[in-house]
Specification:
The protein is an all-beta fold and 137 residues long. Helix content is 0%, strand content 45%. A hairpin with a 2-residue loop joins strand 8 and strand 9. This is Heat shock protein 16.
């Protein structure tokens, strides 16, 4: 699992579009905040995985002495035998990512949607009242 999701930011004229890869994260576990007077977008979330036993739960039936040469191994239908693991095993992961925008945005007109593991945030640009253009001599 990730601790810092991959994010793309694109300038689409009068708005910014932010896309974050959040595979396997339900939208109920994600929070989006616009901060710093409309200059930053913070995405926070968590992934809670159910605890699973990776042990083989097969049972063998043997005779009374425990040495029956005709032992029958019947795997339980819910048993799992891990053959190969490439993904890190984590139970609870929290993540946060803040993106700084070149120009402030309108915090009242923000849309966010989650589709196929991608969070898309669209925000309209606004005028930066705190900045001024300086003439160069």
């Amino acid at each position: 699992m990730f601790t810092r999701p991959a994010i793309d930011v694109s300038d689409e004229g009068e708005k910014y579009k932010v896309e974050a890869d959040l595979p396997g994260v339900p939208k109920e576990n994600v929070e989006v905040r616009i901060g710093d007077n409309g200059r930053s977008i913070t995405i926070e979330g968590k992934v809670v995985e159910k605890e699973e036993s990776h042990a083989n739960k097969s049972s063998a039936k043997t005779g009374a002495s425990g040495t029956d040469s005709k032992a029958v191994v019947k795997p339980d239908e819910s048993s799992t035998t891990q053959i190969s693991t490439e993904r890190p095993f984590t139970r609870n992961v929290s993540f946060t990512r803040t993106v700084w925008l070149p120009k402030p945005v309108d915090t009242k007109h923000v849309s966010a949607k989650m589709e196929h593991g991608v969070l898309t945030i669209t925000v309209n640009k606004t005028h930066d009242k705190a900045s001024t253009v300086v003439a160069i001599d």
